[in-house]
Specification:
This protein is an alpha/beta fold and about 220 residues long. It contains nine helices and eight strands. The protein has a five-stranded parallel β-sheet with strand order 2-3-1-4-8, with helices on both faces. A three-stranded antiparallel β-sheet has the order 6-5-7, with no helix packed on it. Helix 1 packs across helix 9 and helix 2 crosses helix 3. The longest helix is centred in the first third of the chain and has 16 residues. It binds zinc ion (ZN). Zinc ion binds next to loops.
C-alpha cells in the first residue's frame, strides 16, 4: 500500500529526525523542497534559472513554481513500479499550498494518506533550542542542559569564549514559532476537517517520538 505523508509541527519538534527514521523503515522517499530547489537550479533548466534569480534577489519562491517542481518529481516517483510513497518536508506550509497539493495529488491520481502532527510545548522548544552555545575559536558546540562546558561560558578545549549563533538565540526561536503559529498552524484545523490528521505527544526524547510516529503509521496500513 502506498503511504503519502506530511509531518507537521513547530520548528524544533524533531520533524526531520522522525521523518528520516520513518522513511527508512517504510521505504518512503523523503521529498524536501530545499532539495528540489537545489536540484532544479543545478539542472540549468529555464525554471532553474528563474529560481536562481529569485533567490539571488532575496525573494521567496512562489507557490506556483514550488508546486510545479513538486508535481514533476511526484509524477516521476509515482510512475515507478516500486513506489511505496513519500514524506513531504517543507510543503505545504500554508493553507493555499495545501490546496495546491490537493490539486497535484488529484492530477496524479494519488491520495494523501495522513498528516502527522507532532504536538510540542513551546516552552520546551525555546529551552531546548536556546541552550546551544558555540566556541568562538574552535566552533565546538555545547548544550547548557545536556552537555555543558566545565566552566560556564568557556570552551573546555581552548578556553575560547562561548557565544550563541543567531539561530540559537531565544528571540530568533520565538520569531520562528510566531511564524509557524500564524502561517502553518491553520493546517492543523484544515486537515482535521478532512479527517486526515493524526497527532501524538512529541514532548519526549527522539527515540520515543519515532516510536510513536511508527505506531500511528502501522495503524494506517
Ligand atoms: Zn573551543
Amino acid at each position: 500500500m502506498v503511504l503519502n505523508l506530511i509531518f507537521l509541527g513547530p520548528p524544533g519538534a524533531g520533524k526531520g529526525t522522525v521523518a528520516q527514521a520513518v522513511a527508512e523503515k517504510n521505504s518512503l522517499v523523503q521529498l524536501s523542497t530545499g532539495d528540489l530547489i537545489r536540484a532544479e537550479v543545478a539542472s540549468g533548466s529555464e525554471l532553474g534559472k528563474e529560481l536562481s534569480e529569485v533567490i539571488n534577489r532575496g525573494e521567496l519562491i512562489s507557490d506556483e513554481q514550488m508546486g510545479q517542481m513538486l508535481e514533476a518529481k511526484l509524477k516521476e516517483l509515482s510512475s515507478k513500479e516500486d513506489f511505496e510513497g513519500v514524506i513531504l518536508d517543507g510543503f505545504p506550509r500554508t493553507v493555499p499550498q495545501a490546496d495546491e497539493l490537493s490539486n497535484i495529488f488529484g492530477r496524479l491520481e494519488q491520495d494523501l494518506t495522513a498528516v502527522i502532527y507532532i504536538e510540542t510545548n513551546e516552552e520546551n522548544i525555546i529551552t531546548r533550542l536556546s541552550s546551544r552555545w558555540t566556541c568562538s575559536k574552535c566552533k565546538k558546540v555545547y548544550n547548557a542542559i545536556t552537555n555543558p562546558s566545565k566552566t560556564e561560558g568557556v570552551c573546555d578545549v581552548d578556553a575560547g569564549e562561548l557565544t550563541q549563533r543567531d539561530d540559537d538565540k531565544p528571540e530568533t526561536i520565538k520569531a520562528r514559532l510566531a511564524q509557524f503559529n500564524e502561517k502553518t498552524a491553520p493546517l492543523i484545523e484544515y486537515y482535521k476537517e478532512k479527517d486526515l490528521l493524526k497527532s501524538y505527544d512529541g514532548n519526549v526524547p527522539p527515540t520515543e517520538s519515532i516510536a510513536a510516529a511508527e505506531k500511528l503509521i502501522e495503524e494506517l496500513k
